[in-house]
Design goal:
Strand order of the largest sheet: 22-23-1-24
Bound molecules: ligand EPZ
CATH superfamily of the largest domain: Enolpyruvate transferase domain
Largest sheet: 4 strands, mixed
Shape: elongated
Helix content: 25-40%
Radius of gyration: 21 Å
CATH architecture of the largest domain: Alpha-beta prism
Oligomer: single chain
Strand content: 25-35%
Number of strands: 24
Length: 417
């Protein structure tokens, strides 16, 4: 089992090139199932979840090859409608193949994702919404057995709760449904906008008709398409926080600052000096980190995927702060590990009360989920001494070349077996 050894504390200085977005790439890869034409995808991050999704598509008959960094997908011979548990269990976004399989073939057998450290990850909203398009489904032995005997029929769908995955599944499925669909109370994360832009490139007819409503006219013909996925805003936010917490000075490149305005404003408020350019963000951390109270929310609110990282930063703040986690029911797994490093964080329901002025002590730590694991790396970077982080396969799911990128900006970090 690999571990990460981090020797702190030092200030991070230099340039970070942000990779493509994992959470934009996953629905876009699933959406390629709609088409029998060649598709070229650029800027996909080299992370485990993307590899898993590619293996899932290949297991269903997709022909996929890499041309240098680009991916070329041809689904003309893709004919399997079965997504197995052993692939979906490690990457819950596997459920995103359900919509496209139903749209293309009218039936599918897809493993339920199962839970993970941050929550039970139900898919009831996906399934209820798909049934509005004419899908009949039953759940047995951990699989969704779904069929649309008359094909998918466009319909009006109002999501009972904002769900990124359900919005993505339905946007993809409705793109080939007969007739018009209007989806309302959609999630509008930037990754969903990226998916819509990709679908349009393939010839789908989609139009945002209100902030959280989209109109989709089903088509039955798609074109060959090439698309470059957007930057990873969570990776970018993580490195911004790394600069703020280590009093570092970083130039974050290949980004659209507007997309992470909420997080940039928070970091300015706690005292970091930030300058934004067209596709770069320059950040200088300050010795004094001011406390603040935060709440996670659907975009454009504070990203839940940056909650753990913000918590580490607020441990170093000058006073007490409170973070309220409103998206997932169990997304404080990093708290116990941070407290083992000397933090004083008290959990009350979905709120974490964080004492400031923490002097972290190096320790051996356990990563529990993707974003919690990177928060432990951030804490270790600001701590004198050698910390060891176990179960870093969580990290590898969503951060491309994290040691290489951190080493390049001055971190003393290495992977040990
Ligand atoms: C996506 O997960 C992201 N994953 C998550 O990032 C991210 O944290 C989350 O959106 C919120 O932004 C990908 O894009 C691959 P949801 P998703 O459906 O789609 C409940 C990371 O670290 N819900 O918006 O699963 C659900 O339990 C990952 O990269 C239902 O109740 O999130 C949660 O409490 C972690 N029923 C809330 O809604 C459903 O059918 C939001 O979930 C679906 C969701």
């Amino acid at each position: 089992m690999q571990k990460l050894e981090v020797l702190g504390a030092n200030k991070l200085k230099g340039i970070v090139n942000i990779s493509g977005s994992k959470n934009a790439s996953l629905p876009i890869l699933a959406a390629t199932l709609l088409s029998n034409k060649k598709i070229y995808l650029k800027n996909l991050p080299k992370v485990k979840d993307i590899e898993t999704m590619i293996n899932l598509l290949k297991s269903m008959g997709s022909q996929i090859k890499f041309d240098k960094k680009d991916l070329i997908i041809n689904n003309s011979k893709q004919n399997k409608k079965f997504a197995s548990y052993n692939l979906v269990k490690t990457m819950r976004a596997g459920i995103l193949v359900l919509g496209p399989l139903l749209a293309k073939f009218g039936n599918a057998k897809v493993s339920l994702p199962g839970g993970c450290a941050i929550g039970t990850r139900p898919v009831d909203i996906h399934l209820q919404a798909l049934s509005k398009l004419g899908v009949k489904y039953k759940i047995s032995q951990g699989y969704v057995h779904a069929a649309a005997p008359k094909g998918l029929i466009g319909s009006k769908i109002h999501f009972p709760k904002i769900s990124v995955g359900a919005t993505e599944n339905l946007i993809i499925a409705a793109s080939l449904a007969k007739g018009i669909s209007i989806l309302s109370n959609c999630a509008i994360e930037p990754e969903i906008k990226d998916l819509v832009n990709f679908l349009k490139k393939m010839g789908c007819k989609l139009k945002w008709i209100a902030k959280r409503s989209i109109k989709i006219i089903g088509v039955n013909h798609l074109n060959e398409a090439s698309y470059s996925v957007m930057f990873d805003r969570i990776e970018a936010g993580t490195y911004l926080i790394a600069a703020a917490i280590t009093e570092g000075s970083l130039k974050i490149k290949n980004v659209k600052p507007q997309v992470i305005k909420t997080e940039i404003d928070i970091l300015k408020k706690i005292g970091a000096k930030i300058k934004v350019k067209k596709s770069e963000i320059h950040i200088e951390g300050r010795k004094k980190i001011k406390s603040t109270n935060l709440k996670t929310a659907p975009w454009p609110g504070l990203a839940t995927d940056l909650q753990a990282q913000m918590m580490v930063l607020l441990c170093k703040a000058n006073k007490k702060s409170v973070i309220q986690e409103n998206i997932f029911e169990n997304r404080f797994m990093h708290v116990a590990e941070l407290n083992r490093m000397g933090a004083k964080i008290l959990i009350k329901g979905n709120r974490a009360i964080i004492d400031g002025n923490t002097k972290f002590a190096a320790a051996e730590l356990m990563a529990t989920d993707l974003r919690a694991s990177v928060s432990l790396v951030l804490a270790a970077l600001t701590t004198k001494g050698k910390s060891l982080i176990n179960r870093i396969y969580h990290l590898d799911r969503g951060y491309e070349n994290i040691e290489k990128k951190l080493k390049k900006i001055g971190a003393k970090i290495r992977r040990v077996n």
